[in-house]
Design a protein that fits this description.
This protein is α+β, with helices and mostly antiparallel strands. The chain has helices spanning 57-63, 105-115, 130-140, 213-222, 224-252, 270-281; strands at residues 3-6, 9-12, 18-20, 27-31, 39-42, 71-76, 83-89, 95-99, 118-123, 146-148, 154-157, 175-178, 194-198, 206-212, 261-262, 265-266. The chain folds into three domains: 1-48, no CATH class; 50-248, no CATH class; 255-281, no CATH class. The protein is elongated.
């Protein structure tokens, strides 16, 4: 963890310091080596927060885009019988979780249910295949079928499983994919510096937004993020409802170019005459008296 309490003040790890964990109130010591980023660790194994994981430089860099007093905030649930440490909670009560390591679907769901108003930021460079897979689909119009919409920066994706890791496809909150990593990787296509937001799926296809880092940080800082996400989701629902109705209308009427015939002879009445003849041809023949 980045901060511990010393005399009720939140202090970053420094050599030889000892402090108190802000979540479980147990002793922690500063770990200030040369191989890992400086951090606080519990003196002994303890059941503090089972969602907590070791931080990478990527993790710490993202957190430092926000004020120190927004970082590592302990949150209690409504019943006050469960608490966890959020990576960032803004003054607008938006929780931002930065995820580098693998996470099981059950834990992902639990975090989303616990924090409710939240957004994930996922390190898209953890597995070597993730970015090449995304690049292939996003640029080549591959099997995932990425299509632009009438809103700038918003795309429809028919098969998002070919673009993004499957573990995140059923998230109930937005997931931001960051493919930049530490910035040292090749970016010949110029796509790594952009963030890609996968929205919870509405209707038959997924929506993805291209967002600049600055825009994302600003929107989550000034409180606009939650409102914008809700507006997007409402708009997606309206679009899908319109498309569903148009599809039903198309399916309910026969195409204009269909030519109906009966025993090889074209029918002037078209579909109506065809249905009429079809129905009469199957009526039972009544036998007369002998």
């Amino acid at each position: 963890m980045h901060f511990a309490l010393i005399n009720n003040n939140r202090i970053e790890a420094q050599p030889k310091l000892q402090g108190i964990c802000s979540c479980c109130s147990k002793p922690v010591i500063a770990k200030c080596g040369t191989r890992k980023i400086w951090h606080w660790a519990h003196k002994s194994k303890t059941g503090c927060d089972n969602w907590w994981e070791p931080e990478t430089e990527w993790h710490r860099t993202w957190k430092n885009n926000y004020p120190a007093d927004w970082q590592e905030i302990t949150i209690l649930n409504d019943r006050e019988d469960e608490k966890h440490i959020a990576d960032v909670r803004t003054v607008h009560n938006l929780v931002i979780e930065f995820q580098h390591s693998h996470i099981e679907p059950q834990e992902r769901n639990s975090r989303e249910q616990f924090y409710k108003n939240m957004v994930w930021v996922v390190d898209g460079t953890r597995l070597k295949r993730d970015y090449p897979r995304f690049l292939k689909e996003w640029k080549s119009e591959g099997i995932s079928e990425v299509h632009k919409t009438d809103k700038s920066g918003i795309f429809k994706v028919w098969f998002p499983e070919f673009c993004f890791p499957e573990a995140w496809l059923k998230s109930s909150v937005p997931v931001i994919f960051d493919f930049l990593g530490d910035g040292s990787m090749e970016d010949s296509e110029g796509l790594r510096n952009t963030l890609y937001c996968l929205f919870p799926q509405v209707g038959t296809h997924a929506r993805v937004a291209e967002i600049s880092r600055k825009a994302f940080i600003n929107a989550t800082t000034n409180g606009e993020w939650t409102l914008r996400v809700q507006e997007f989701r409402n708009d997606f629902k309206k679009q899908d409802e319109l498309e569903r109705k148009e599809h039903q209308q198309t399916m309910s009427r026969p195409p204009n170019n269909v030519k109906y015939t009966w025993r090889g002879i074209p029918l002037i009445g078209g579909a109506k005459e065809y249905r009429k003849r079809l129905s009469t041809s199957y009526k039972p023949i009544r036998k007369g008296r002998r």
